[in-house]
């Protein structure tokens, strides 16, 4: 139940959506006002992403984001949440060992998150299993891992060669077996996202991973065209496209509509 008594969507509901072929609409939110706009538009998952380090705090990477920052923003979003599942990112170094991962994951759940998101596969799989065994719902994140990117040149499509692609499929399966309930796929070729989506029964949520993922996520400020600088290929400015007489709520509604209908993303926002 949310603080205002509404039933909240569960990981099981999202898995059922995958089975029905119904697309899942996800957006980042960092504050109560934006979370409310997303809820009204029918967004199913609110992600308090550590992208807030870049779009809210003005850093050039997500690494400076602290646990205190994540707890602060998660609590704001939790206050406005009604029906959407609330996922909070575990920031850089906050899951560097088993003890820290458990303690910090619990702090995010105490702040109002339903699930925590960690970046990576391989050696992280056992840590994720430990979190799940201790009752913490987990969302995995494969492909481009922003916390591992040191500078602006690191933002590249991942999984292009056969070995990297094979490893990512193995990682996705291992994350599912470890108990992850959701999986973000960032910046990978569309065909690889299709293979991963078909290889696991948990929903995949793509960002720059093609239209065949079970759902889509965008950074809300990108969708509204207010992120300065060069934009990645997968970003679409829904607000500008709707025209000058339309506002934030209509842009989010249009994003949800296009995710649900499969109109977003187009090949122009995907990698082949
Ligand atoms: O931090 C974030 O906003 C994210 C999304 C890009 C998936 O992890």
Low-pLDDT parts are none
Strand content: 5-15%
* H/I helix tally: 11
Q: What is the end-to-end distance? A: 41 Å
Share of residues in helices: 40-55%
Mean pLDDT: 96
Largest sheet: 8 strands, parallel, barrel
Task: Report the order of strands and helices.
Answer: HEHEHHEHEHEHEHEEHHH
Give the distinct bound molecules.
3-methyl-2-oxobutanoic acid
**Largest sheet strand order:** 1-2-3-4-5-6-7-8
Helix-strand category? alpha/beta
**Number of DSSP E strands:** 8
Q: Assign an overall shape.
A: globular
Radius of gyration (CA) equals 17 Å
Structural overview:
- The chain has about 270 residues and is an alpha/beta fold.
- About 40% of the residues lie in helices and about 15% in strands.
- It has an 8-stranded parallel beta barrel, surrounded by 8 helices.
- The mean pLDDT is about 95.
- 3-methyl-2-oxobutanoic acid (KIV) binds next to strand 6.
Task: Offer a concise description of the structure.
The chain has 272 residues and is an alpha/beta fold. It has helices spanning 11-20, 32-41, 52-55, 67-80, 98-110, 124-133, 162-178, 190-199, 220-223, 238-242, 248-261; strands at 24-28, 45-48, 85-89, 115-117, 138-143, 182-186, 204-207, 215-218. α2 crosses α4.
Give a topology summary.
Blueprint: H1 11-20, E1 24-28, H2 32-41, E2 45-48, H3 52-55, H4 67-80, E3 85-89, H5 98-110, E4 115-117, H6 124-133, E5 138-143, H7 162-178, E6 182-186, H8 190-199, E7 204-207, E8 215-218, H9 220-223, H10 238-242, H11 248-261
Parallel strand pairs: 1-2, 1-8, 2-3, 3-4, 4-5, 5-6, 6-7, 7-8
Bound molecules: 3-methyl-2-oxobutanoic acid.
């Amino acid at each position: 139940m949310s603080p205002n008594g509404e039933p909240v969507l569960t990981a099981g509901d999202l898995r059922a959506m995958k089975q029905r072929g119904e697309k899942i609409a996800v957006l980042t939110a960092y504050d109560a006002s934006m979370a409310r706009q997303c809820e009204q538009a029918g967004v199913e998952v609110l992600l308090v992403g550590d992208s807030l380090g870049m779009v809210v705090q003005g850093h050039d990477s997500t690494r400076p984001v602290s646990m205190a920052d994540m707890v602060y923003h998660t609590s704001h979003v939790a206050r406005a949440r009604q029906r959407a599942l609330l996922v909070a990112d575990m920031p850089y170094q906050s899951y560097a060992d088993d003890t820290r991962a458990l303690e910090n994951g619990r702090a995010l759940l105490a702040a109002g998150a339903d699930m925590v998101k960690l970046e990576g596969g391989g050696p992280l799989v056992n840590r994720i299993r430990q979190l799940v065994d201790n009752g913490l719902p987990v969302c995995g994140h494969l492909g481009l891992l922003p916390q591992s990117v040191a500078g602006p040149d690191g933002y590249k499509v991942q999984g292009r060669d056969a070995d990297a692609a094979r490893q990512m499929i193995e990682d996705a399966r291992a994350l599912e077996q470890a108990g992850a309930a959701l999986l973000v796929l960032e910046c990978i070729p569309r065909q690889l996202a299709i293979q991963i989506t078909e290889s696991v029964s948990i929903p995949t949520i793509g960002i720059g991973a093609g239209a065949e993922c079970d759902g889509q996520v965008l950074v809300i400020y990108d969708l509204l065209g207010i992120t300065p600088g060069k934009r990645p290929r997968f970003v679409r400015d829904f607000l500008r496209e709707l025209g000058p007489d339309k506002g934030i709520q209509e842009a989010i509604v249009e994003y949800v509509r296009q995710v649900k209908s499969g109109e977003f993303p187009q090949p122009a926002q995907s990698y082949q």
